[in-house]
Design brief:
Helix content: over 70%
Structural class: mainly alpha
Strand content: under 5%
Distance between the termini: 33 Å
Order of helices and strands: HHHHHHHHHHHHHHH
CATH architecture of the largest domain: Up-down Bundle
Membrane topology: Multi-pass membrane protein
InterPro entries: MFS, MFS_trans_sf
Number of helices: 15
Protein name: MFS transporter
GO molecular function: transmembrane transporter activity
Radius of gyration: 20 Å
Pfam families: MFS_1 (PF07690)
Shape: globular
Number of domains: 2
Low-confidence stretches: 1-7, 201-205
Length: 404
């Protein structure tokens, strides 16, 4: 492996290139289920509340998994753990089309999707710990921007393709494609080599799962920037966790468009995420972490507030793009900061504590937002959520986030 501290560029790092390609492939598959699961629930039940229930149950599974995901990531071979999570998701998502050949029991969705969400959390926690093991410390933000950008590229085409597949063959077919991509991603990980943490002797800390998890919590809570950032993101996730369901419901039920239009709207949104990945490195360097995170989050809130005020599909797509551009910049900054300031042997546990804490309100938020959309209408809900997100962002000016 090239010395990651002194490569001429990220592209000279073979392991980084391979990792980027296979994660782009996995992201393409993710975008299929991102569209297909809500569509399948909506086709089967006609209820935005049921869509929110599935999203909420998946969030609960992610929270529960987060309690021990970081401990596992800090104890075992991280590449094998990524492969295990990919294989598990492949088998779980493959179950849906296999069962749907004979019947359409909704309990399969309520069982499989949350379980897959748990493995997704395990994958995401481990994924964060892997990036510093592939690139140098001064390349982390740029690498995260590339990875986020590749994810956006995949999800630009993915929702559109998923919409076409769902319209032509049903959402179940799109879920089957997702299962295949997880299998390919697991195979590709065999080609990636990871550098062991510099503090490898400290990695096996012992003391039981509870104590090891609390070690991550203690580090997180002692840090002057990560602590308030976790609190603010908890409120942010509560407000926005159900927004994808709301947008799908708006396009299909309120405006009467088909599955392919849903795919176009969500693809337009991910164009914004792609543009954000180009901008984040320069913006953070120019403005610093605090101003970048606060400003981007506030702009995302403005875009959300405007989503329910228009009946034009192109405008909804443009606002989705603005929302994901802003939140993408904020998310890349947040993850990069955590990777930069956390010791390698603690990174899994700190990441798990970070995500478990700020996702804890996500299921409740998804259920509340989708139920409110059904009861009060999308326009009022989007306005309330957008104003709330702006308030969360501005609250950061009074915390250590502003000085980060």
């Amino acid at each position: 492996m090239n010395d990651p501290a002194r490569p001429e560029s990220l592209w000279a790092n073979r392991d980084y290139r391979v990792f980027l390609v296979i994660q782009t492939l996995s992201a393409l598959g993710d975008s299929f289920s991102f569209v297909a699961i809500p569509l399948l629930v909506l086709h089967s039940t006609g209820s935005v509340v049921q869509m929110g229930l599935v999203t909420g149950m998946t969030g609960v599974a992610s929270i529960v998994t987060g309690l021990f995901a970081g401990v596992i990531a800090d104890r075992v071979d991280r590449r094998r753990l990524l492969m295990t999570a990919d294989v598990a998701r492949c088998l779980l998502y493959a179950t849906i089309p296999a069962v749907w050949l004979f019947a359409t029991p909704m309990w399969v969705i309520y069982t499989v999707v949350p379980l897959a969400g748990g493995f997704a959390m395990l994958f995401r926690v481990t994924y964060v710990t892997v990036v510093p093991a592939i690139v140098g410390p001064d390349q982390i933000t740029r690498a995260n921007a590339h990875l986020f950008g590749s994810y956006a590229v995949a999800t630009v085409g993915g929702p559109t393709l998923a919409g076409f597949v769902a319209a032509a063959a049903g959402p179940v077919a799109a879920i089957g494609i997702d299962a295949v991509t997880f299998a390919l991603s697991a195979a590709g990980l065999l080609l990636v080599r990871l550098r062991p943490p510099a503090d490898e002797p400290e990695r096996q800390t012992g003391g039981g799962v509870r104590q090891e998890f609390l070690a991550g919590v203690r580090f997180l809570w002692a840090h002057p920037v990560l602590r308030p950032l976790t609190v603010l993101l908890s409120a942010f996730i509560f407000l926005t966790h159900g927004m994808t369901d709301v947008i799908i419901y708006r396009v299909k039920e309120d405006l009467g468009h088909g599955d392919d239009t849903v795919g176009y709207v969500l693809s337009a949104g991910t164009v914004g995420a792609f543009l954000g990945s180009f901008a984040v490195t320069r913006v953070r360097k120019a403005l610093g972490f605090g101003a970048t995170w606060i400003g981007a989050t506030a702009l995302g809130g403005v875009a959300v507030a405007c989503l329910g005020l228009t009946g034009s599909v192109p405008v909804i797509g443009a606002l989705s793009a603005g929302m994901l551009l802003a939140t993408g910049v904020a998310g890349i900054c947040s993850m990069s900061l955590r990777q930069e300031v956390t010791p390698g042997h603690l990174l899994g546990r700190v990441t798990a504590a970070f995500w478990t804490t700020h996702y804890s309100l996500g299921p409740l938020g998804a259920a509340a937002v989708t139920a409110a959309a059904a009861g009060f209408g999308v326009a009022k809900v989007c306005l309330a959520v957008g104003v709330g997100v702006v308030c969360v962002a501005l609250s950061g000016t009074a915390t250590g986030v502003a000085r980060g």
